[in-house]
Amino acid sequence: MGRPVVGIIGNSHLLNDRYPVHSGGTMNSAAIAEVAGCLPLLIPTDPAFVRVEELLEICDGFLLTGGRPNVHPSEYGHAETPAHGAFDRGRDAITLPLVRACVARGQPFLGICRGFQEVNVAMGGTLHPEIRELPGRMNHRMPPEGTLEEAFALRHLVRLAPGGVFAGLFGAHEVMTNTLHGQGIDRPGSRIVIEGWAEDGTPEAIRVAEAPGFTLSVQWHPEWRAAEDPVSRPLFAAFGAAVADYAGARR
Fold first, then answer.
1. CA 160 to CA 51: how far, in whole Å?
2. Which residues contact 142 (CB under 8 A, 6 or more apart)?
3. Which residue in 4, 35, 49, 203 could disulfide with 236, CB within 3.0 to 4.6 Å?
4. What is the pLDDT of residues 70-101, one digit of tens each?
5. pLDDT at 223 > cutoff 80
6. Buried-exposed string 169-200: b where 16+ CB fall within 10 A, e elsewhere
7. Of 211, 213, 220, 222, nearest in space to 246 by CA
8. Roughly what angle, to the nearest 10 degrees, separates helices 89-105 and 114-122?
9. Confidence at residue 200, expressed as pLDDT on a 0 to 100 scale
10. How many CB atoms lie within 10 A of CB 123?
11. What pLDDT does 144 receive?
12. Across the chain, how many H-helices and E-strands are there?
């Protein structure tokens, strides 16, 4: 029997500003293959090509990746503004119902950055388009210049809820993380439990209450050097174990 399959949510963009592609970061595939122990399968996330029902049958779990385009604000009842930035409506159309289906079925997913935000929206929550504009908040965006190492460097503490799932997983009450996002949770969705906060109060770690499967999501990017990082490694290992359990149960 082969490895459990993790569908990696792809992003749409233009290569060389003219050739349309669906892509996924190599570090996402590395984290799934090397730490989670699963087969990474890149998904062209657009209803023109795939259906949620097909993905649920083919994949054992899903990695909801980060991405430059943001969830369209109409998905949570807000008007579009310039602050909301670029969008990927095809991804919205797949990931939001996919999250809800996974929650209901107990099918594992791990949300990262935009994926974290998608989980909140899928469960009825809202997003703030530019959290650095809020009083007392820091700038969580990726530095505009510098190396990849500098962009993904650890930049702030995340305080974890005592006795929570994340604190138990990491064996700590606080962890250091990177930060590369502009948007953030405004109002938590139904059943969204916030278990981690940045020093400025920005939600950083969530799960879905009373869900039968793995529903952990983080606002930072744990895929960066996941095999080496003491926070990333247990997160991806736990996700991989959940995916393997789900695959075994249905096979």
1. 36
2. 151, 180
3. 35
4. 899 999 998 888 777 778 999 999 999 999 99
5. yes
6. bbeeeebebbbbbbbbbbebbebbbebbbbeb
7. 213
8. 60
9. 86
10. 21
11. 65
12. 7, 13
- Other CB atoms within 10 Å distance of the CB of residue 124: 15
Measure the CA–CA gap between 140 and 52, rounded to whole angstroms: 32
Give the residue numbers marked as catalytic.
113, 221, 223
pLDDT at 140: 63
Asked if residue 9 belongs to a domain, the reply is yes
For the chain, what is the domain count? 1
Q: Which domain holds residue 54?
A: 5-127+183-190+204-250
Predicted local confidence at residue 139, as pLDDT? 64
Is residue 11 assigned to a domain? Answer: yes
Given this model, what pLDDT does residue 150 score?
A: 81
CATH of the domain at 230: 3.40.50.880
84's tokens: 């909301």
Backbone angles phi, psi at 233, to 5 degrees: -60, -50
Identity (one letter) of the amino acid at 114?
A: R
Mean pLDDT across the chain, nearest whole number?
Answer: 92
Contact present, 88 and 69 (Cβ < 8 Å): yes
**Which residue's entry shows tokens 């736990």?**
238
pLDDT in tens, 11-66: 888 889 899 999 899 999 999 999 999 999 999 999 999 999 999 999 999 999 99
